[in-house]
Amino acid sequence: MRLEEVPKIPLGFYPTPLHELPRLSKTLDGPRIFIKRDDLTGLAFGGNKTRIIEYIFADAKAAGADVVVASCGIQSNWARQITAAAKILGMKPVLILRTAQFGEEPREYDGNLLLDVLMGADVRVVKAPITADVSREMSEVANEYAAKGHKPYVLYGEPPIGVFGYANCAYELTQQAKTLGIKIDYIVHASSGGATQAGLLLGVKMQRLETRVVGISAASRPKNILVQDIKRLIDGAFKIIGFDLDISSEDIVVFDEYELGGYGIPSMEVLSTIRLLAETEGIILDPVYTGKAMWGLIDLVKKGYFDRDEVVVFIHTGGLPALFAYRKYFGSP
Length: 333
Ligand SMILES: Cc1ncc(COP(=O)(O)O)c(C=O)c1O
Fold this sequence. Notes:
The structure is a single chain. The protein folds into 2 domains: 3-47 and 160-330, Rossmann fold (3-Layer(aba) Sandwich), CATH 3.40.50; 66-150, 3-Layer(aba) Sandwich (Rossmann fold), CATH 3.40.50. The model has no long low-confidence stretch (mean pLDDT 95). Helix 2 (49-62) packs across helix 3 (77-88). It is of the alpha/beta class. The strands form 2 sheets. A 6-stranded mixed beta sheet has the order 1-2-10-7-8-9, with helices on both faces. A 4-stranded parallel beta sheet has the order 5-4-3-6, with helices on both faces. The protein is 40% helix and 16% strand. It starts with 17 loop residues before the first strand and ends in an 8-residue tail after the last helix. The site of pyridoxal-5'-phosphate has 18 residues, from helix 3, strand 7 and helix 7. Pyridoxal-5'-phosphate binds next to helix 3, strand 7 and helix 7.
């Protein structure tokens, strides 16, 4: 099967812009840095999940589902974008949200949670850490809907079908690089569930590019588990598409040095990175994923990981609504 033949339901706006961050490069005295604006993909404030769930919803629709059940943290972008997609497609979004980052039930609606509620998701809050297994709660709520005559599609984890979203993005980047007259040496992005990194690697390998894909862990799971998940997702995607390419463990580059306090914890470095990008380039990052990934990129520049004449593309994977739930970290007037 060819990539274009894998069924998907178009939900996003592409190509997302690719543009240079000259002021950041100058401030860092580093390589040329470009940003791929996947914060502008659409689906209720955009983000990387748009590309991924276009495939997942095609699968859900093909299964005849009218309810989609997903789980994540209380400030989940995954949950918010799934909710928006479900609404567009006339399905009921049901969210099992772990209190994770904040450790307590929210006292007010804010950030992603506000948007979930605004869009009419059925939100069930579970007091549990981000890594907690909530499959029992998911099955229970699915049974509840099934008993009322619905057909639920339950997302127990990230299915490999979603990987094709970022394989497509790698092709989109190649076209844009051609137009801009650049050769992309590195792609750097936030990595958590692994589908984004798996997809980018797949797309890079399918095009036989030398571009290296660097994932900066957002600390939702230990590095070895993340690497295993990326491998599992790639293998799963190969099975669907019916061919294989040589992707070795060395190809899966993940840095977990920038986890800084753990998942959803905004360290001083991340907060100052968010300020730096806002002040130099007018680009807004989020505290859970892109702030961490950009801090990783900046530190790698400082350590000389990239050559001065190389081109680095940072993928802005979105996550912006969560910024508002973290407002207290930025002081007050
Ligand atoms: C804003 C943002 N960036 C990056 C990621 C990581 O993507 P993936 O789960 O595909 O590794 C996520 C995942 O939740 C996200 O919400």
